[in-house]
Specification:
Length: 169
């Protein structure tokens, strides 16, 4: 990151067309960004410079996860983009990717975002404190509790806790 410039931009009604128009208005010539579609997040690269776009209409926890997910693509997949200037994540793409390589990249970006926003050490320590305070640590109530502390969605927190084997079923 130190060698490059990365900027986070939140735009309402995020789509490829909105990103295209935003870049044009700021003097960039974005080229082809693909077919227009609604987006949760979008990574745009121009040499060592990058812009992460997130949908401002999404709730704050979703925007934070999306930004971390796109940062994951920037750090992990920039070299794999083979000259492509963009990587867009629509809500459907995150769930329904059919290409094995793209699906692997999505999983890696999701893991990166989860570790960045919900570090394993913090989840384990907070679960231990919760268990000490309440003599139990049921996953769903604990996920809601910790999601509020870490400003992530309860759903993302439940997945993270299950993946870590933290909290009781």
């Amino acid at each position: 990151i130190a060698e490059s410039s990365l900027q986070l931009i939140e735009l309402p009604r995020l789509s490829r067309a909105i990103v295209h128009d935003h870049l044009l208005a700021r003097g960039s010539i974005p080229g082809e960004l693909g077919d227009d579609e609604d987006l949760a997040g979008f990574l745009y690269l121009a040499g060592p410079f990058g812009r992460i776009f997130v949908n401002h209409d999404d709730p704050v926890p979703r925007r934070r996860f999306t930004a971390a997910h796109e940062l994951g693509h920037f750090l992990l997949h920039r070299d794999l983009m083979k000259g492509s200037v963009s990587f867009g994540d629509s809500p459907a793409m995150v769930v329904e990717v059919e290409d094995d390589a793209l699906a692997a990249m999505e999983r890696q970006a999701n893991r990166f975002a989860a570790e960045l926003l919900m570090p394993a050490e913090i989840c384990r320590a907070r679960a231990e404190a919760f268990r000490n305070a309440y003599r139990a640590c049921p996953r769903t109530p604990f996920a809601y509790h910790l999601a509020g502390e870490l400003l992530v969605s309860p759903e993302a927190m439940r997945y993270r806790l299950k993946d870590l084997g933290v909290a009781d079923e």
